[in-house]
Amino acid sequence: MQKKKVAILINALEVAGAEKVIAQIINSFYKEFDIHLVLLNNTIEFELPVNDITIKTIDNTNLKLRKRAKDILKIPLLAYRLKKYLEQNNIQTCFSALNRSNYINCFLRILKWKGKILISERSHTSSAYNPHTIAGKTGRFLVRKLYPLADVIVPNSAGIKYDLTTNFNLTNEFSVINNPVNIAMQQKDMGETVEDHNFESFTFSHVARIEKGKNHELVLAAVNKIKNRDFKVLIIGQGPQEENIKAQAQKMGISDKIVFLGYRRNVVKYVAKSQCHLLTSDSEGFPNALLEALACGIAVISTDCPTGPAELLAGSFVPNRHFTDVEKSSYGLLIPVNDADALAKAMLMMMNDEALLTQYASLGIKRAGDFDLPIIMKQYAELLNRF
């Protein structure tokens, strides 16, 4: 029996959250579907069954030298190249992730492509596009004009769906599919030895690209308020704000509290050996780092940012949540966005209350099970088979 052909379009497969999910989809379904991976840049940093899928690159823009204006102007050209490739290979379903790829995928409809267009939205669109900047206004315009052309929008959180329907007036068919966690693989990674930290002090972990939206400055501000206590914070990740954050920690006199580990291939072995995980973002989609921490069996503290953390920790999405203090949610502590006092208070709660720490560690494993890889991949299989 001939396998159904599916094209998967993404900017590149760098090591990042959305890209990881795409790699998991490919590795889960390459035997079930005839997968054509279409890249805008031929960067692949995940292990893939390269002999069992087809890989096509339709652009060669240097990821580090990209210009937003040029990216937008090239949408029609890249959509034309994509349409030509899909028609030549008789592919009737194109699934994309990340904004630029989604725009190109949707533009296929303007070019009269007859197949099914599925786009995966993985960030809180209202937060991603600042309405007071030219770039933000342009992004919002493209979402409003192109996203309605998709047959199905696949947000990775209910909060993203709410944002797109409420703030962008999209009336497409939606299929919310959360991010998965590969619990079986993660348990193996958790067992690896850590040789560059001894975990003798109470240890918080923080895994994120060091950039503005992840708000590492909030970590520093909270640590500065409780620096008389014996604890460490492991900062795992790299990014454009790295040197600035290190300089701020030095200036604040808290360098002895912050351990900058940089990039690590296996982050969960550090998270699993910590006592508590921190997420301090201003916005997310459905944060992999928080989900993986829950699966490690440690307590978590997260900002109640749009979107994802409240869905994970409170158990469901509730529009327009608002609180001004630490919230003891079902599966972890939630704090207001960019509130150093609340974060410091939550960190002290975890350090001072062994019962609370143990309770959340146990509940976190249970919660992570709702997003185990086979459960989420079944939802993707149903979606791809339906279209």
Characterization of the model:
With 387 residues, the protein is an alpha/beta fold. It folds into two domains: 4-180 and 372-386, 3-Layer(aba) Sandwich (Rossmann fold), CATH 3.40.50.2000; 183-371, Rossmann fold (3-Layer(aba) Sandwich). Helices cover 42% and strands 17% of the residues. The protein is built from 16 helices and 14 strands. It has helices at residues 17-29, 68-73, 75-88, 99-110, 125-128, 134-146, 158-167, 183-190, 216-225, 242-252, 268-273, 288-296, 309-313, 340-352, 354-368, 373-386; strands at residues 4-10, 33-39, 54-57, 93-97, 116-121, 152-155, 173-174, 202-207, 231-236, 258-262, 276-279, 299-303, 327-328, 333-335. It has a seven-stranded parallel beta sheet with strand order 3-2-1-4-5-6-7, with helices on both faces. Strands 10-9-8-11-12-14-13 form a seven-stranded mixed beta sheet, sandwiched between helices. Strand 9, helix 10 and strand 10 form a beta-alpha-beta unit. The chain starts with a strand and ends with a helix.
